[in-house]
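Quick one: structure for this chain?
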Amino acid sequence: MALILIGTGVAFDLTLAGLEALKSCSEAYIETYTNPASKEQISALEKLCGRKITLLERGQVEGPLLVNRAKSSDVCILASGDPLTATTHITLVIEAKEKGIPVVVIHNSSIHSVAPARAGLQMYRFGKTASLVNPRPNYKPTSSLDIIRENLVRNCHTLVLLDTEPKPMEAKTALEMLSEFERVVVLSRMGYPDEKVTYGRIEELKNKNLGKPPFTVIVTAKLHPMEQEFLELLK
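Got it. Here's what it folds into:
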């Protein structure tokens, strides 16, 4: 009886430990609201591990289902990236431990580490992460822009996560929302064979082919010479 959280990495790449846990558990579930996965990807994963994987809606992940099932079974929940980068999964761990249920966490790569590394930016120079939500009528939050402004005052880069509901945000939508800033790195489909990384001025990037979703954006502060040299290769 245990709750087992398995990270799927940035491109649906399980670790060997994750695959073994998935094969041996009693029940397997997957949530995809933090990084949508196609039916084909889930089917391929089911074929690889030889079992059925049940897709959960966000409300089911946040509800009592998983913890209750883990009282009598070994329950695996597959989550995008590293399983403990999402607040929802931290809550699951707390609830399980409070009920005396053993918890196993199998870590994996996360966009929080992959994006800065792929852009050649120094990890310690990042400030608070920001998120952009898809445009909605009469709803224009400004807190993310405030975070970026505050980071720039401290000469820190900003990792900007893009909304995935009701569908993954397009890069050019994000660039419009970030138009007050100067330079960004746009990362497309990290970890996949067709991944793409583009750097430049926002106004110039609006007219470029930036790849396909899912996207991640980094708003850059003043660059270290080594960062500058690396990013110039991406132009």
